Amino acid sequence: MSTSPLAPRHIFVPALPRMRARISHAVVFGDTVTVSGMVGRDPVTGNALTGVAAQTRQVLDYLGLVLAEAGSGFDCVAKTGCFLRSMADFDAFNAVWESYFPDNPPARICVQAELGPGFDVEIDAIAWVRR
To answer: How open is the CA angle 38-36-86, to the nearest 5 degrees?
Structure first.
């Protein structure tokens, strides 16, 4: 039995804290990887980190691990969806986000949203896979 080259490939990164929902960290389909929303959990305790900057940094570090596992990277990100508990935190969030995308940043949406308890930031992404 052969697998179609267009069959989706589900990505799970064991180093990431366990997610509450039963979802893939990402799904690769063709040359595209779609990454699930990530929050700033402490890698040891699984609890929310303190502060928007710390959470944003942790989320983007997790995003980098997932992208690498999928054969992609920050330079391949086409779009991010960014969700903040409060838009009052935008400047702190944006300073960290820009440090991960210093040149040719991806398209982005950034909205205020109700997030899980203790979480101030959630980010998802769409990227292409290097060939």
So the answer is: 45
